[in-house]
Design a protein that fits this description.
- The chain is of the alpha+beta class.
- The chain contains six helices and six strands; from the N terminus they run H-H-H-E-E-H-E-E-E-E-H-H.
- The chain has a domain of about 130 residues: Nuclear Transport Factor 2, Chain: A (Roll), CATH 3.10.450.50.
- About 40% of the residues lie in helices and about 30% in strands.
- A six-stranded mixed β-sheet has the order 2-1-6-5-4-3.
- It starts with a helix and ends in an 8-residue tail after the last helix.
């Protein structure tokens, strides 16, 4: 009798868990739309900026390792400046998921950052960085009110002469400090 009561209790608890879980998976129609919107925001090209800006709310909040943006006016200017300095920027989404009001994706971005030299000529510096993004939607919509992009600025700076040695030095110091298998040259 005790075993039967314990089994019944486990079954009741298991059944009640399925009723309390509220996460909506990638399979809902809204989350399918959010997957498309999230990918479009991340894989945007310079030519597509006018198409994706309307997905952002007027009070959009954006963060990356260097930039904090508050509001659609600054977000729009940020995106146009970004693609003005890196017109060939390409981001490829690798994995993505949309649950409830959030979207998350991992990606690789590549591009050429153009720097104006003292003589007025432009020098192109190619870079590649892996990262991830979290995008938050207003409830029951595809309106984006929050975006945070995570990536290492060091991956980009490692391609820039003058900064490359600083990044290399920091990475060696870091590996010497934390990696028990690293053959530290210091």
């Amino acid at each position: 009798m005790r075993k039967l009561s314990a089994l019944l209790l486990v079954l009741i608890c298991t059944a009640s868990l399925s009723f309390t879980v509220s996460a909506k998976s990638n399979s809902s129609n809204l989350n399918k739309e959010r997957l498309e919107v999230g990918r479009a925001l991340l894989e945007v090209t310079a030519d597509q900026l006018p198409e994706i800006i309307p997905y952002y709310t007027d009070d959009i909040e954006y963060h990356d390792p260097a930039v904090d943006i508050y509001g659609i006016v600054d977000m729009t200017e940020f995106l146009y400046r970004l693609f003005g300095n890196t017109p060939d920027l390409i981001t490829i989404v690798e994995d993505q998921i949309a649950i409830d009001d959030q979207y998350m994706a991992t990606w690789t971005m590549v591009g050429t950052y153009y720097v104006t030299q003292e003589d007025g000529t432009q020098e192109g510096i190619e870079y590649e960085a892996k990262g991830m993004s979290i995008i938050k939607f207003k409830p029951k919509s595809t309106d984006v009110w929050y975006q945070r992009d995570y990536y290492s600025e060091g991956d980009i700076m490692a391609a820039i002469p003058g900064l490359d040695q600083a990044i290399f030095g920091f990475r060696v110091f870091y590996l010497c400090s934390v990696d028990p298998n690293y053959a530290c040259p210091l």
